[in-house]
Amino acid sequence: MKQSGQCPKCSSTNIIHDAKAIDYYDYGVQETMRVGVDRNPSAWIFKGQENSTVSAWVCGDCGFVEFYADEPTKLLDAADEAEQK
User: Fold this and answer.
1) How confident is the model over 24-49, as pLDDT tens digits?
2) Helix (H), strand (E), coil (C) string for the chain
């Protein structure tokens, strides 16, 4: 959807671009949703987590949603490092 500008479910081109994905924590506190990758996943502490906020692309007709990491290269670097360990 992000690259094609078209919904893969209904073929609509009414796409809401770069909507922020919001998560709720204790007491109704809003936080931007994040995804994370540990550089050293087997460590007990100090795992070296890299994270990125997430944006959503939403079909304005059928409601289909795709999520994208805003900083995917940070996550890829951490995943590559984790694989080497």
Assistant:
1) 888 888 999 999 999 998 888 889 99
2) CCCCCCCCCCCCCCEEEEEECEEECHHHCEEECEEEEECCCCCCCCCCEEEEEEEEEEECCCCCEEEEECCHHHHHHHHHHHHHC
Exposed, middle or buried, 79 (CB in 10 Å: 0-12/13-18/19+)?
Answer: middle
Residue 57 structure tokens = 């692309």
- How many CB atoms lie under 10 A from the CB of residue 7? 21
Between CA 74 and CA 39 the distance in angstroms is: 10
Total-model pTM:
0.78
